[in-house]
Design goal:
The complex is a heterodimer.
Chain A: H1 23-27, H2 32-60, H3 71-106, H4 115-138, H5 151-155, H6 160-187, H7 200-232, H8 245-279, H9 286-299, H10 315-327, H11 329-343, H12 352-375, H13 377-383, H14 387-417, H15 423-450, H16 464-494
Helix pairs in contact in A: 2-3, 2-4, 2-16, 3-4, 3-6, 3-7, 3-8, 3-14, 4-6, 6-7, 7-8, 7-9, 8-11, 8-12, 8-14, 9-11, 11-12, 12-14, 12-15, 14-15, 15-16
Chain B: H1 12-47, H2 49-56, H3 61-87, H4 90-120, H5 137-170, H6 181-205
The chains are: A mainly alpha, B mainly alpha.
Chain lengths: 559, 208
């Protein structure tokens, strides 16, 4: 237990980073903060691999003929890109890194409810990732990230079994994390932190965890059935034995549509924290935000059929799935409106994380609205499997989720490392990312509308201009993604001391040292006020005190 | 004696309820996992009722009944174990666990005999000598193998955990009196049992 000085600050004791320097102290740690860092390292590794595959894809598509790679290699490239990015980057991105690091801090707890399970989940994730990686090194998988039957079960000669097992195993890792989050939020909240005082980041992680626990096993069983069909020749989806390949799609999307919300809900939470802090405002409509999060998590389970409008499912099913897909836009829109209303009248400053968060709102809105186009049956019949779909989900996943991930990483970086990064470079990277992203993916809406199908390595000449634009944008995007590696990396060695609360934010995680001590807090905090109390409800918001870059107390401390 | 209370808890009651909540959440995910198989079974049964009926006549009802009895008995011994465990009776707890272990192992042994018989009768989907020539019969057996196989795997994992628990309780390696360990193992074992209670009629009885 930590001792505290006269002002209630934690006395000089090693922070979580200084609690041990051996490899063993990291690999056997049960500290949620260190596990978050472990996840961050593996995640960035997979992000780079997935990004490298995307680079080859855009390089191939820069010219109309298939001149860089063969059609078969191209299939393996986009499958690799999809599998790695979805399951080994996007799904665990925010929950396993920022969530792991911050959830106990944000609820005033000393650790997760099950610290050992938390560490185990990282190892399971690693095993799953290595299996998937092995499948890739041995020659790759050519089914697309969706593993659609009967292709994946009967015809593909690639390493489907190995990759599917990798994803299957990684699923247990996310289930373990989700389970841990739910129990932690239920049992570890500090005194006075009632459910309606939880930061929306915590609510978002809680809802995400619910979806993880109830959706991921559907993916597991779908993949298990494919593996059994491949290995034991059971005809579960084999038409020759009376099987129906479409059944796989139903089970797969019963997971994979909620998985979209697994990926995006934590981003909602991150963005709320950042927006309120840099506009010095209470969040507008806290209760509505909570119910919107829970509503999205619930409704997300009932829209999977909108991926299957052209699969031959009944027209009635399609119409109902279409209607439900429109309905889920309501809570999503509530969130966007409330974020806008939060900004209204606030003292807005444009720190890097704020730029990422604002970018998130714009890109998510565009991705969401084009999702409504696709939720409409006649338009989807026209657009299905075109680049319009590719652009739509990249606006949500990359424009939305990756922006939110970077917003959170920049927002909490001073808390995680205790150091400030170069604000100038960070702002530049944020702007470049927004620019490069639109440059890359907006042309794909037009390509899709013109009728260019996804998953082909060559295309007719009339699509060339838009593809060249998209590939050029990808270069900018790649630079914008690599920049943070440099300035964040440098900040660890050269950055100014951040102080406990450089942004003057109100969350509990800012009421302890940066980086936090092993036990997170001295005496556990007691909450007496609403979240986001940047100003009293009867008062106008006020600007941050002092020089905006003014470091506080810990700056003078010697660690 | 091992410490019952683990970080970050300060109250054993709260820790117990957290452990119990954890296993319930895990069981919810297990239900969804098996749900995918039940869904597939139901869809194809609706489409191919004759094939299912004809194929089901080939399953070994006697061994199915024996196994159901064995597994129900093991659930009872497991419930007994949790109950005496809460009272802190070490010898009774170990006895209950060993009885569960024996009954569960017997189930798997009977299942092994049954599998052997099935293979001898070529009840393998896609086998050239598959005995039932009705569309859907092979699909029934695809699900028979997939469902009993995955159920058997869950049983094997459960037996492993129970075997370790016997050792841990006997040597007091874990604080089994205070923590929810036995309760958690018991709930997992009961879920495996409940899955079988659905599998037995679906694979041996309904429409025979």
């Amino acid at each position: 237990m930590s001792s505290t000085d006269a002002e209630g600050y934690i006395a000089q004791e090693p922070d979580y980073l200084g609690a041990g320097h051996t490899v063993r102290s990291w690999l056997l740690t049960t500290d949620h903060k260190r596990i978050g860092i472990l996840y961050l390292v593996t995640l960035l590794f997979f992000f780079l691999i997935g990004g490298a595959a995307a680079t080859f894809i855009r390089l191939e598509l820069a010219t109309p003929p298939g001149d860089l790679v063969t059609a078969d290699t191209y299939n393996r490239l986009f499958t690799l890109h999809g599998v790695i990015m979805v399951w080994f980057f996007l799904v665990p991105a925010v929950p396993s890194t920022l969530g792991n690091f911050l959830l106990p801090l944000a609820i005033g707890a000393r650790d997760m409810a099950f610290p050992k399970l938390n560490l185990l989940s990282w190892y399971i994730n690693l095993v799953g990732g290595l299996l998937a990686l092995a499948a890739l090194l041995l020659g790759g998988v050519d089914t697309g990230w969706t593993f659609y039957t009967p292709y994946s079960s009967l015809y593909s000669n690639s390493y489907v079994t190995l990759a599917a097992l990798g994803v299957f195993i990684a699923g247990f890792s996310t289930i373990a994390t989700g389970l841990n989050f739910i129990v932690t939020v239920h049992t570890q909240r500090c005194e006075g932190l009632t459910w309606m005082r939880l930061p929306l980041f915590v609510w978002a992680l809680y809802a995400t965890s619910m979806v993880i626990v109830l959706a991921t096993p559907a993916l597991a069983v779908a993949l298990a059935m494919v593996v059994m069909e491949r290995v034991f020749a059971l005809g579960l989806f084999d038409p020759a034995q009376g099987g129906d390949p479409i059944l796989f799609q139903h089970i797969f999307w019963f997971y994979s549509h909620p998985a979209v919300y697994i990926m995006i809900l934590p981003g909602f939470g991150v963005v709320t924290e950042v927006l309120t802090c840099f506009s010095r405002r209470k969040v507008f409509g806290y209760e509505a935000m909570v119910f919107a999060i829970l509503g999205i998590a619930l409704f997300g389970f009932f829209v999977w059929g909108h991926h299957m409008f052209v699969s031959g499912q009944s027209a009635y099913a399609s119409l109902i799935f279409s209607l439900l897909s429109f309905l889920i836009a309501i809570p999503s829109a509530i969130k966007v409106f409330n974020w806008s209303a939060t900004l209204y009248g606030g003292h807005i400053t444009f720190e890097a994380s704020m730029l990422y968060a604002l970018g998130f709102i714009g890109l998510f809105t565009l991705g969401g609205l084009t999702g409504l186009f696709l939720a409409s049956v006649p338009i989807d019949v026209h657009m299905h499997d075109t680049y319009f779909v590719t652009a739509h989900f990249h606006y949500i996943m990359v424009g939305g989720m990756v922006s939110a991930f970077f917003a959170g990483l920049h927002f909490w970086w001073p808390k995680i490392t205790g150091r400030m990064y170069s604000e100038l470079w960070a702002r530049l990277a944020a702007l470049l990312m927004f620019l490069g992203f639109n440059f890359t993916f907006f042309p794909q809406f037009i390509l899709g509308y013109m009728g260019m199908p996804r998953r082909y390595h060559s295309y007719p000449d009339e699509f060339e201009m838009w593809n060249v634009l998209s590939s050029a944008g990808a270069v900018i995007l790649a630079v914008a993604y690599l920049m943070p590696f440099v300035y964040l990396g440098l900040s660890v060695y050269r950055g100014r001391r951040a102080g406990d609360n450089p942004w003057q934010a109100r969350g509990l995680e800012w009421q302890t040292a940066s980086p936090p001590p092993r036990e997170n807090f001295g005496p556990l905090p007691v909450v007496t006020r609403e979240p986001y109390d940047y100003h009293r409800s009867d008062e106008e918001p006020s600007a941050r005190e002092g020089d905006l870059d003014f470091p506080n107390r810990s700056d003078t401390e010697t660690r | 004696m091992p410490e019952a209370l683990h970080e970050p808890f300060h109250d054993i009651g709260k820790q117990r309820s957290a452990e119990e909540a954890g296993i319930w959440i895990f069981l919810a995910s297990e239900v969804i996992f098996f749900g995918g198989l039940f869904l597939g079974y139901a869809v194809y049964r609706l489409r191919l009722p004759e094939g299912y009926g004809a194929a089901m006549a080939e399953t070994n009802l006697t061994l199915g009944i024996v196994n159901t009895a064995l597994l129900l008995a093991s659930s009872a011994t497991m419930a007994f174990t949790v109950w005496v465990g809460r009272e802190g009776l070490q010898r009774a707890t170990v006895t209950g666990l060993i009885a569960t272990l024996a009954l569960g192992t017997a189930f798997l042994a009977v299942k092994g005999v049954e599998y052997y018989e099935d293979i001898r009768h070529h009840l393998i989907p896609g086998h050239p000598d598959f005995p039932v020539d009705v569309p859907g019969a092979e699909m029934f057996f695809s699900f028979y193998w997939a469902m009993t196989g995955l159920h058997g795997l869950h049983m094997a994992i459960g037996l492993g955990i129970i075997a370790w628990t016997v050792h841990a309780v006997r040597s007091d390696r874990i604080a089994w009196r205070e923590t929810a360990h036995l309760h958690v193992v018991g709930l997992y074992w009961n879920l495996v049992d409940v899955v079988w209670i659905f599998l037995f009629p679906l694979l041996y009885l309904v429409g025979r």
